[in-house]
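SAMPLE LOG
Freezer: B-3
Tube label: C17
Construct: single chain, 204 aa
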Amino acid sequence: MTANVPWENGPVFNTDSDDIVDSALERAGVADFFREREELEEATLLLDLDDQDQDHGAISLALEEVNELLIQHLARRPELMHDIHPRKFEELVAAMFRSMGYEVEITPRSKDGGRDLLAFQKTGVGTLVTLVECKRFSPDRKVGVSLVRSLYGVVEHERASHGVLATTSSFTRGARNFQQTLKYRLSLNDFDDLARWAKTYRRR
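STRUCTURE (predicted):
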């Protein structure tokens, strides 16, 4: 698998030109790389990396570099978030949370329990746990109040510190109004927020 990672000997490029970025992504075979990953996931062969000790470090490093490359590209063209595979979107949100100082776990696809990510932040008084639900929706498909209520139910059930719903679209008025009644327990982050996260992303 690591043999398919095009930058194992160094970054493919370092440029601000969208055209050159697109060409480099195509030339490097990034789409093929993710297609192969999805096929492996469907066959339940992938990402229980704890069972792949020999390649764990190399694969993890490779995926971090893939995510960094894509986030840099999305910072220039955030509208491309709408075309990303939903699972890849979750991984990119996880990478952005890591850049903000969180330790992040991605939950298995079939057993996410109403949250896609667990984000841990250590403080001087203990560890805070944020549950993150990711929704890669088209721009015209707003996140409604039912999904926000559902996330809050999971936050309460797991006694988590906070809940975040991150989407590539936006939220209905009902969703926003519900969140305002629980503004210290829930955060709603829309397309504009994610675009800003991508622009301020710094790999740790």
